[in-house]
């Protein structure tokens, strides 16, 4: 069962699961997901708060494991509506864990985030780095990581928490992609500027202690993320111990580098506007993902910047060329 299976990363995971021989059951409220993104298995339309439906779904489909993506994920929104985030991301996840306990499901791959680290003390960030979130979104994810730990001790729940850095790109075959409203991620916003759908891209801060003065992030292709989830599930099936893993490339790209790559890939100019820093934005977030390689045999295949942008560009242009048939 893939909670949030109609969302951006969840839909890519469903495709990867189906290709690996699994039967993904997408469970999604469609509040922020898209019905047309569910193409690799059945959709159960339901809210994560509906524990009775969760139990019924697990029993009806004889669910053996859960991939848990369902969550609100806007950092800014989490700071203005923390109550929404703690109710949806934390309370509802507790209900999911109770449903799994009731039905005897003992394996979960959890969608966590680098936001659990907050502003890092050292870079690159390893899994043992201190976790001090600086926004409510990161705090909600950290709370679930802790709950998973204690459910493991009390109930034998085996889990892998995958802390991704900056998810980006779209399915290389164009079958699903990134569609958020409002959109807050840098790469799709840059591509919208290239398409003339927005006047300019805002560059938040040009005075960071980085080579070009703009913030540096570790971008990871969404298909590489999906592959890691399938590998994490196989790891648990083989009796692997519960753990948390970073998913990233270990290479950082600045905002200016992203814009330059977008201009190179699209052949279009990206208008930009320099504005002040956003509160809480660290200068650089780059991960050490060695542990995922060692435990899962995972190596990113699509995560060089040009490939990420090209896949997202093809997805964006495809959506503009015809009425959208696939959301994410």
What does this structure look like?
- It is a single chain.
- The strands form 4 sheets. The protein has a 7-stranded parallel beta sheet, sandwiched between helices. The chain has a 3-stranded mixed beta sheet with strand order 12-9-14. It has a two-stranded parallel ribbon with strand order 7-10.
- Helix 2 packs parallel to helix 4 (82-103) and helix 8 (255-266) packs across helix 10.
- Strand 1 (2-3), helix 1 (8-19) and strand 2 form a beta-alpha-beta unit.
- The longest helix has 22 residues, at 82-103.
- It has helices at 8-19, 51-60, 75-80, 82-103, 136-155, 186-194, 222-237, 255-266, 290-296, 305-321, and strands at 2-3, 26-28, 43-45, 66-68, 107-113, 158-164, 166-168, 201-204, 216-217, 219-221, 243-247, 253-254, 272-275, 284-285.
- It is built from 10 helices and 14 strands.
- With 328 residues, the protein is α/β, with parallel strands linked by helices.
Brief summary of the model shown:
This protein is 40% helix and 15% strand. The protein is an alpha/beta fold and 328 residues long.
Strand order in the sheet with the most strands: 3-2-1-4-5-6-11
Strand content: 15-25%
Number of helices: 10
- The percentage helix is 25-40%
The overall pLDDT, averaged over residues, is 93
Order of helices and strands: EHEEHEHHEHEEHEEEHEEHEEHH
Sheet with the most strands, sense and barrel status: 7 strands, parallel
Shape: globular
Residue runs with pLDDT of under 50 for 5 or more positions? 322-328
User: How many angstroms does the end-to-end distance come to?
Assistant: 17 Å
Q: What would you report as the Rg, rounded to the nearest angstrom? A: 19 Å
Which structural class fits the helix and strand makeup? alpha/beta
- Strand elements, count: 14
């Amino acid at each position: 069962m893939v909670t949030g299976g109609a969302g951006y990363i969840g839909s890519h995971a469903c495709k990867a699961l189906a290709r690996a021989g699994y039967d993904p059951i997408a469970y999604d409220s469609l509040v922020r997901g898209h019905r047309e993104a569910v193409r690799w298995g059945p959709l159960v339309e339901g809210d994560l708060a509906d524990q009775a439906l969760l139990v019924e779904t697990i029993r009806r489909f004889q669910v053996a494991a859960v991939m848990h993506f369902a969550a609100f994920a806007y950092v800014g929104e989490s700071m203005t509506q923390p109550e929404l985030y703690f109710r949806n991301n934390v309370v509802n996840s507790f209900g999911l864990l109770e449903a799994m306990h009731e039905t005897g499901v003992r394996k979960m791959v959890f969608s966590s985030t680098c936001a659990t680290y907050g502003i890092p003390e050292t870079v690159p960030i390893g899994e043992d780095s201190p976790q001090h979130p600086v926004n409510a979104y990161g705090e909600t994810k950290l709370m679930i990581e802790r709950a998973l730990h204690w459910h493991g001790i009390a109930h034998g729940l085996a889990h892998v928490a995958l802390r991704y850095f900056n998810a980006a790109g779209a399915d290389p075959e164009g079958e699903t992609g990134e569609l958020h409203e409002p959109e807050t991620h840098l790469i799709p916003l840059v591509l919208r500027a290239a398409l003339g759908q927005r006047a300019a891209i805002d560059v938040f801060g040009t005075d960071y202690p980085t080579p070009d003065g703009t913030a540096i992030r570790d971008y990871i292709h969404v298909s590489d993320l999906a592959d890691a989830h399938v590998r994490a599930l196989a790891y648990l099936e083989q009796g692997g111990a519960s753990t948390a893993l970073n998913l990233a490339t270990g290479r950082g790209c600045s905002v200016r580098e992203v814009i330059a790559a977008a201009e190179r890939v699209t052949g279009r100019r990206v208008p930009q506007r320099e504005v002040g820093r956003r509160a809480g934005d660290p200068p650089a977030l780059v991960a050490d993902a060695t542990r995922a390689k060692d435990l899962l045999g995972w190596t990113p295949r699509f995560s060089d910047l040009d490939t990420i942008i090209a896949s997202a560009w093809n997805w964006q242009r495809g959506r503009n060329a015809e009425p959208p048939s696939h959301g994410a």
